[in-house]
Every structure is written in structure tokens, then in C-alpha cells.
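Worked example

This section walks through a single chain of length 712. The input is the sequence exactly as stored; nothing has been trimmed or padded.
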Amino acid sequence: MGFNRLHGNLPPNIGFTLSNLQELYAGGNQFTGPIPVSLSNASGLSLIDLGNNSFSGSVPLNFGSLKGLTSLNLWGNELGIGKARDLSFLDSLTNCSSLEVVDVSRNRLSGALPNSIANLSTQLTFLSLGSNMIFGSIPSGIQNLIGLTVLNMVRNFLTGTIPIGVGKLNKLEGLYLDSNGLSGKIPPSLGNITRLYELYLHENKLSGSIPSNLGNCINLNLIYLDYNNFSGTLPKQLFSIPSLIYLQAQNNFFTNLPHEASYLKALGTFNVSNNKLSGEIPSWLGNCLSLEYLVLDGNFFQGSIPSTFSTLKGLRYLDLSRNNLSGKIPRYLEKFALEYLNLSFNNFEGELPKQGVFGNASRLSVLGNSKLCGGIHELQLPPCSSQASKNRGISLASKVKFSIIGAVLGLISLSCFFTILYRVRKSRRKPFAVPSMEDPFMNVSYAELFKATDEFSPANLIGTGSFGAVYKGILDRVGTMIAVKVFNLQQQGALRSFMAECDALRNIRHRNLVKILTCCSSIDFKGNDFKALVYKYMSNGSLEKWFHREGHDQPRRNLKFTERLNIAIDVASALDYLHNHCQTSIIHQDLKPSNILLDDDMIAHVGDFGLVRFLSEVAQSSSVGMKGSIGYIAPEYAMGGKPTHGDVYNYGILLLEMITGKGPTDDMFKDNLSLHHFAKLALAERVMEIVDPQLLLEEAKVIQGNENQINT
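Given that input, the structure is written out below as C-alpha cells.
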């Protein structure tokens, strides 16, 4: 009865009427009133899901009589009466030896955490107490819960220190203690949790230095240290974590950054604003080629902007304001796709550029730099001495024509020389999405997905594949669009595909890979097994739908040349990451337009990891095996070539498809004529004959428009 918008109170005797029930799903309704005490009489219950309702009052104290209980989900209600005994139900849960999940977050539970929490089941993997009114300290006995992978206590009134024993939870992947009143130092024992993936300690009263052995947590992706009282130097070991994507440490009292650091390939956001950092900006930041957000404002940095920053072509947001920086503003910043640049209140001098971000006053701030001149009129800076302009003498139309031919030849060559494009650094980035503080770890049920997709309505079906279907929907708890990939477990290989995607996606993260939000392994309302993956919804669909008609009445969509080039770079970046920068190299095996999704900004994300294999597994196998889609499978597989050659071949076919507008299974490709051979025959004198006519038409419009502008 989950997500049917039922309302009112649950019957007081419901536990007697459902005495043989094993799992109770009643989440996402409008139930009010107390949770019936009689539920404890349903002795067969192993799962209780009453989340996302309006239940009030106390949590029943007799759930402990359900010896087989494995999951208790009460999040998102109004439980609690504001008294110390609100958490007494935890005492009874110590009798549930098979308990794996307890989620009572987003309620009104008050009181101190009882010491009995240390006696909960060692099989407990998920403990979420966040967004309540819990006060007092974290019991030291928390260290006994050795099975925990997620510990969530955010947004409470906890005080005291972080127990040293937390470091004994060596299976922990997510530690969420932010928005409390915790004090003292970070215990060095946290460095023992090598599986730790996300660390949220922001908005507390923590102090002292950051333990250097935190660098032992080599799987850390996200570190939040902001709004505390930390001081000293951010240890260089922190910057040697290869998987680190997000480091936020603003509003502390740090005085130094390390003089050197390892090559951080994944770091996308680095924020140390409003500290007491001094000296020159470290040049090693220029090695962080994935940086999108670099925020250094409100410190005491001096000197010029490092020349190494010229490599940070993926920057979207750069804030160097309120420092003591000087010198000229580098011209290379004009070429960056910056969405915001703040250089205000420094000592910069010389002529301000006018191109790129410098041409938009709403995205630029240079206040408080009295020695700057020039720039666009809106900035009202004093004029600089004039310089003679140079006539380049080549017509714009000729430039466009030559650029089309050169670019087409270059892209077709890339199908044979993939490594060239691998060296192309990410020139276009999507702003890093800050993880939700309110719900850092989603645990969704079948009922929630059932509701989100309007009962898996055909109207919400956005795609089908070999092993299932994909639906769009809106998940109530986050209020955003999602894509739900539901596996047809009756199809041979579907379960294996689900497990393969889970294995691959749990340890990888890249801005050009689809973003998985969570997975669901449950039972539907008919008692059948249910497996699904929940992704961030991509509003512009798959690349295939931009090249091939979905129906006879639907015209083919068109992509500009620059859009196609950017998509090619995005896909290459994703493959480079999978092959060369994962802890274990991954082979995709099914790269094709239908598995490339485009977001709001037309940034490409590679998806569908149902056929992936880890390179280490392939190396131990006697044969690679031919997997993939017709027209994209690499001949090298049949001849015993390197496993990664298959992805490279797929990529080459994809490039040819993007340039010619023809897929490898087009009706014209028969009698030993393939897309690859078709393109090869056209090199190099007849290359323009095979280019997608829509592409040529678009570029012709550009040329005509530029010529008209020149004549005007």
C-alpha cells in the first residue's frame, strides 16, 4: 500500500490482521497519528517501511520483539515528543540480531543517544539519525557497529568530540556528522578507514590541524571541512588522494597550503576561501586539469596569477578576490569558458581583456583594482593608450570554409588515431553538482520508484534495451527529474547486467559518465524480485535521437559542428578515464550513440555499463569474447587484439557516424561495404561528399551570415 496517497490513521489492530506479513510497505502516503503498537504482533515482519508520511508521537518500544527484523525505515515523519525518552526505542532494537538498516532521519526525535546503541546488531550497515533534535555526545560504543557502511547524524545538536573508536569502523563508506556542535580534533584513527568515500564534518566547532594520515583514505571523493576552527597547513597527503573530486575547507584558520602536491587528476572543486593563507598561489594547482571551481578569495595571497593556470581550460568559476595579488591579468583567461570570474580588491594593473568572460560585466568583477584600464564600456575603467590594429587580410568566409574541411579530415583521422584525442584536455565542463546535505545517502524502495514514474506509465517510457526499460519520473524526496532503469529479470543475462553496472558505477565518478543516484534491489507489490538503477535525468536524450529519426513523422534533429566536436571530446575523456585513470581499468564494450546521453548544456555522458569488464578479469580469461552491438563490434576481438582496442574501434565508428550522419547498420552498407570502408574510400579528395548534408547546410548559413555582416 506504499505511495497510494492513503491518509488517516493506521488501524490500531493492524498487527493482528497482518500477522503473517513479512514486509510492510506503507511509505509515501499521508498517514497521520501514532504508529500502532500492535505491529510488534506481526512476528514474521522482516521489513517495515513507513517513511515519508506524517506519523507523530513516540516510536513504539516493542519493535525489539520482531526477532527477524532487518530493516526499519521511519524517515520523513513527525515522530518524537521532544523529551529525553524519544530514543528509547533503540534499546529494544538490540534484540534484533539480524537488523541491517535503521533510518529515522528527518523527524523530531530529541534526547541523548543511549549507550545501548553499542549493542545493536553487528550486521547493521546503515544507521541514519540525521535532521532531528538529538543532543549530547556520540557514545564511544559506536565502534562496536563494525558492519556499518553509512553513519548519518547530520543536523542535530551533538556536542563533544568525535570518538576515536570511529576509526575501527573499517567498512565505513560514508561518514556524515556535519551541522552539529562537535569540538576537538579530528581523530587520526579516521585514516584507518580506507574504504571511506565521503567525509562530511562541516559546520561544527572542530579545531586543530588535519591529520596527515587522512591521505590513507585513498577512495575519498568528497571532503567537507568548512565552517570550523581548523588551523595550520592543509597536509600534502590530502592532495595525494587520487580519487579526490571535492575539497571544501573555507571559513577556517588555515595558514598554509603545501608547497608541492601530487598530480590531482580528478579534483573538480577546491574552496579555501576566508582563511589566513599567505604567500604565492601554489603553481601545482595548474596540474589539477579537472578543476572547475577554484575559490581562493579572502586570504593573503600575493604575487601574480601562476602561469601554470593556463592549463586549467575546464575552469567555470574562479574567485581570487580580496587578496594582495598583483601584475597583469593573463590573456589566456579570455579563452576559458568561465561562467564567473572575480578578481576584485587586489592590485592588478594594465589593460583588461575584452573577450570571453571579460566581455560580460554580469559575470565579471574587477572592483578595487585602481591600476586597471580598458575593458568593455560597462566596467567604466579609464582608457589605455591605443594600439594600432592589424588587418589580417583573409576573408572570414575563406576561414570558415578551410576550417570545415580541416576539421572534418581531422575528426575522420581520429577514428584511426584515438590516442591523439585522448591528449585533448577537457575544454568544456559541467559545473560540479554539490551533493545534497539533507539526504547524503539515498535508500529508495520499490514503492517510491513506483510513484515517481506514475506506476511505470508508458507515457514516461523514454527508452528500451536488451535487458529492460528506462522511465523518467520525479522523486518526491529530492524533487528533481530522475531516470529509472528497470531490469527485466525474466530476460537471460539481465541480472548479470545489473550486477555489472553496480560493480562498475560504485567506484567510478567522472563528469562525462552518467551520474548514478542510487540502486534498488527489492520486491514489487506482487512479490517478484525487482532490480533498478536510478540516474540523474538527461533532458536532451541520447545522441542517437539527434541523428536518426524516431518516427516517419518526426524530422531529424540537427547538431552544429562545434556541438559534435564537443561531444566527441567528452566521450574521449570518459574513455580515457575508464581505461587509464580508474583504480582498475574498465572496458565499456558497447559504445554507441544510444548509450551517450546529453544534459541541459549538451554535455555528453557515457552510460549503459551492462557489458563492462574489468581489465584485470579479462587478463585472467583465455578469450576476450565478442560483445557489443552489430556494426560496432571491433574486428580485433575476433583476432585476439587488446581488449581496449574494442572501445577504440567503437569510438572510431561513433566519430564517423557523427560526421556522415549514417549509422553502421544503414541500408546502404551491404555486400562487404561498411561505414569504415565507406569513409576510407572517400579520403582525401572526396571527403566533403560523405559529410552529413545537415552539417554542411548549417555551416553554409554561418558563412552567409558572416559575409552579410562584413558587407554591412
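What to look for: The chain has three domains: 64-325, 404-432+543-699, 446-536.
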